[in-house]
From TrEMBL:
Stored InterPro entries: TPR-like_helical_dom_sf, TPR_rpt
TPR repeats by residue range: 269-302
PROSITE patterns cross-referenced by the UniProt entry: TPR
Pfam families on file: TPR_6, TPR_7, TPR_8
Presence of the UniProt keyword ATP-binding in the record: no
SUPFAM superfamilies named in the record: HCP-like
Keywords: Signal, TPR repeat
Signal peptide: 1-17
Species of provenance: Siphonobacter curvatus
Protein name stated in the entry: Tetratricopeptide repeat protein
């Protein structure tokens, strides 16, 4: 309670507007909801929902987190009108408070993310535009209102990372901002708003991890941040995802297997999916299959169903069980949906008639997964007796060079990685595979690190120039973010 009272003293004077009060009860609810103790947080909010706009906003925050992290379509269908109802209530509250437009904007963002998650991209995009307009107006009316910078800064980063081919759309819609501006705004919240510091820090790490890149020092700082917030399930979930992305398989596995899981926390099925991925990287195929099956049992529809099934196929194939591998390969074609890049990639990989993997293909896959998890010695051991000449198909030759380059790149052996990336580009030019554009992106990063801006710029622009491949959105976004970071 002392902590809550301390934080209340340091909230900006804006917070005391009659319709928008961060009372001790509301502050405790916020902290619980942020930790994914959603039922507890909602109970704390209940007495203030009719009169306090902050309570309405936090109730909506709980809805968003629940829907995004469980992907429960029935719950979505029963809750999808909640946002508009809360917006109507907020519109009747004090318009002279900076909290009014700001919280309305954040509710718009909540439902934008939810709609996009459930396949309603166009309505979700319009909610983002409406949120931006509210936040931008609020910033002009109340320039000293720091909290507004949390959501506005995030939007400025995302707008700034928009690929060049879509920049005309953001300009036409009046959406302006750049990455550095956005990061500075989010950082201002971490410095000036004690209550919201931890959430703003998480947004900083998410922007760095998914839009830009985390440096080695930033990964170390992030791991300290995770240790300091071990009881926060939301932070641990995103921590698990980012550590996997950064190739820290062992740390990610420990986190996924030891996350807070008492009944007061939201149950998130995606931890099992992540555990399955890491065990696949480690070559523990039977245990990986068990984890994927547990995920699919809890989450039989929606995102990552195709990908989890595809990875079950890979586990069986790499373990030498051809009958079960074929069964899972065929299932990928008929189950789940292909909205995100992982599921699109799984669908594409299984479009052709089933063919057993060759021994060289198995070695490349084992090396790829081991490298992705940070198990570099295992990865190189798998590639020890392979060469490009062992592959008859152009696709396989291209993948071989790209996967080998990624392993050496992750080991900071740029001298070995560069010609392998260049070979992947040469082999993949004109194809709709992601290996060539992904190689361009990675070469851009290498030359950016070497401070060779001309070469980095050339490779980032070339990465964007590839027209069709399953990772185009993410490759283009990362390349654009890097160009912006370099001042282009």
């Amino acid at each position: 309670m002392k902590r809550i009272l301390f934080l209340l003293l340091f909230l900006p004077s804006f917070s005391q507007a009659a319709d928008f009060e961060w009372t001790p009860r509301v502050q405790q609810a916020y902290l619980d909801i942020f930790k994914l103790k959603l039922n507890k947080g909602r109970q704390e909010l209940a007495p203030e929902l009719k009169t306090n706009g902050v309570a309405l906003y936090l109730d909506d925050y709980a809805d968003m987190l629940s829907l995004l992290l469980t992907e429960d379509r029935k719950a979505y269908e029963s809750m999808e009108k909640n946002g508009e109802k809360r917006l109507q209530q907020l519109e009747d509250m004090d318009e002279d408070s900076p909290w009014n437009r700001c919280l309305r904007a954040e509710i718009r963002l909540h439902w934008a993310f939810v709609k996009i998650k459930f396949g309603k991209e166009v309505p979700g995009a319009w909610d983002i535009i409406k949120a931006y307009k509210l936040l931008d107006e609020n910033a002009r009316r109340f320039p000293q209102f720091t909290y507004n910078k949390k959501a506005l800064g995030m939007l400025h980063v995302l707008i700034g990372s928009t690929p060049e081919s879509y920049r005309w759309v953001t300009k036409l819609l009046g959406l302006r901002g750049n990455i550095q501006q956005g990061l500075q705004e989010i950082h201002a919240v971490t410095q000036k708003e004690p209550l919201f510091r931890t959430e703003a820090q998480l947004i900083e790490y998410l922007m760095q991890g998914y839009v830009l890149r985390l440096s080695g020092r930033e990964v170390t700082d992030f791991q300290k941040y995770l240790a300091q917030n071990s009881d926060n399930l939301l932070i641990q979930f995103f921590g698990n995802s980012i550590l996997m992305k950064e190739g820290h398989g062992e740390a990610a596995l420990a986190l996924a297997q030891n996350h807070p899981n008492s009944p007061e926390y939201l149950d998130i099925p995606f931890f099992d999916y992540h555990i399955g991925e890491i065990l696949l990287q480690k070559g523990q195929y039977a245990h990986a299959i068990t984890a994927f099956q547990q995920f699919l049992k809890q989450h039989p529809t929606g995102n990552f169903v195709k990908d989890a099934t595809y990875k079950e196929y890979l586990c069986y194939a790499l373990a030498g069980d051809e009958a079960k591998a074929r069964t899972q390969y065929e299932r990928v074609k008929t189950i789940g949906q292909a909205h995100n890049e992982a599921d699109k990639s799984a669908q594409k990989a299984c479009n052709a008639a089933y063919q057993p993997l060759t021994d060289p293909q198995k070695l490349v896959l084992k090396a790829r997964f081991a490298g992705d998890g940070g198990y570099y010695e295992t990865a190189l051991q798998n590639l020890k007796n392979t060469s490009e000449a062992q592959f008859s198909q152009p696709y396989d030759r291209t993948e071989y060079n790209y996967r080998k380059a990624r392993i050496y790149h992750r080991m900071n052996d740029f001298v070995t990685a560069i010609p392998l990336y260049e070979r992947a580009i040469a082999l993949g030019e004109g194809q709709n595979w992601h290996f060539a554009p992904s190689s361009c992106l990675q070469l851009g990063y290498i030359f950016q690190l070497r401070n060779d801006k001309a070469k980095a710029k050339s490779y980032f622009e070339k990465a964007i120039s590839f027209k069709k491949h399953e990772y185009k959105n993410s490759v283009d976004g990362k390349a654009k973010a890097a160009l912006t970071e370099m001042g282009y």
